[in-house]
Amino acid sequence: MLIAIGVIVVVASSLYGLVIFPQRQLAGMEPVVLTTADGSRVQVPQDLESWQESPGRKVYESLGCVYCHSQQVRPEGFGSDIDRGWGARRSVPRDYVLAPNPLLGTMRTGPDLANIGARQPSREWHFLHLFDPQLTSPGSVMPPMPFLFEVMDREPNWAGADEVLLPKPVNGKPAWIVPSRRAQELVAYLRSLNQRGTLEDVQ
Ligand code: HEC
Questions:
Q1: Considering only CA atoms, which of 163, 51, 149 is closest in space to residue 102?
Q2: Is 143's C-beta closer than 6 angstroms to any atom of ligand 1?
C-alpha cells in the first residue's frame, strides 16, 4: 500500500513539474513586435512561414548539423557564450514559441548558431565554408559538404547562379562553385537565425 502511494506521488509530482507547470508558465507566450532604432518594426521571433517552416531548416535537419551545433545562448555565469560573442543576450523561451521542434541541440563541437545570421551575414562566406570549412576556417573539423555544389572551371553565365570564385585554383586553373538549391535554402535559413531584441523587450 505504502509503495503504491509512493509510486502515485512520484508520478503525479513529475507530471506536475515536467508537464503541467511548464505548460501553465509558457503556453500563452506569443511573439512580440519591437520597434528598432531606425523605426522599423520586427517581430521576435520571425514568422513561421519565413523561418521555422523554411525549406532550409529541413536541410539543416537532414544533414545532421544539430549533432555538432546548438542554437541556445546560455546566460552569463553559465559558460562563456556571451563573452565569445555568440549572442548579445541569453536565449529565452519566446525565441522558440513558433518552432514546432526547436533545434536547441546538445552538442557543441562547433559554435552556437542561435545568432549566426547576425554574426556572419555574408552568403559568399557560408557557401565557401560549407563547400570546404578549411577555406574560411583553417584547421576546422567540420565535415566539408561538396555535394551541395557544382564545381565549374569557367564562370557560369546564367542569371542567379550565385557562383563564388574559389580562393585556391583547382588543377592550376581558377574554379567556381555553384550552390545547389539545397545549399541556397540552407544558407537562407542560417542567415535568418538571429535572436533580436534585448532581454527586457522579449522576456
Ligand atoms: C562534426 C561536427 C560538425 C558538423 C556535423 C557540422 N559542423 Fe559546423 N562547425 C563545426 C566546427 C568544429 C566549427 C568551427 C570551425 C569552423 O568555423 O569551421 C563549425 C563552424 C560552423 C559555422 C561557423 C560558425 C561561426 O561562429 O563562425 C557554421 C555557420 C556552421 N558550422 C554551420 C554548419 C551547418 C549548416 C552544418 C550542417 C550542414 C554543420 N555546420 C555541421 C562542426 C560541425
A1: 51
A2: yes
Spatial distance between the Cα atoms of 181 and 176, rounded to a whole number of angstroms: 16
Find all residues with CB under 8 Å of 183, minimum gap 6, and list them: 127, 130, 145, 148, 149
Mutate to test the pocket of ligand 1, among 61, 69, 70, 141 (most ligand atoms within 8 A of CB): 69
Question: Residue 141 corresponds to which cell in the numbers above?
Answer: 573539423
Expressed in angstroms and rounded, the spacing between residue 144 Cα and the centre of ligand 1 is 9
Half-sphere exposure of 107 toward its Cβ, with a 13 Å CA cutoff?
Answer: 8
Ligand 1 and 33: CB distance under 6 A: no
Atom of ligand 1 nearest to the CA of 145: 38
| C-alpha cell recorded at residue 4 | 503504491
Taking the chain (203 residues) in runs of 10, the rounded mean pLDDT of each run is 95 95 86 84 74 80 96 92 92 86 91 94 96 95 96 88 90 94 93 86 80
Q: Which of 169, 174, 134, 135 is nearest to 154 (CA)?
A: 174
* pLDDT at position 129: 97
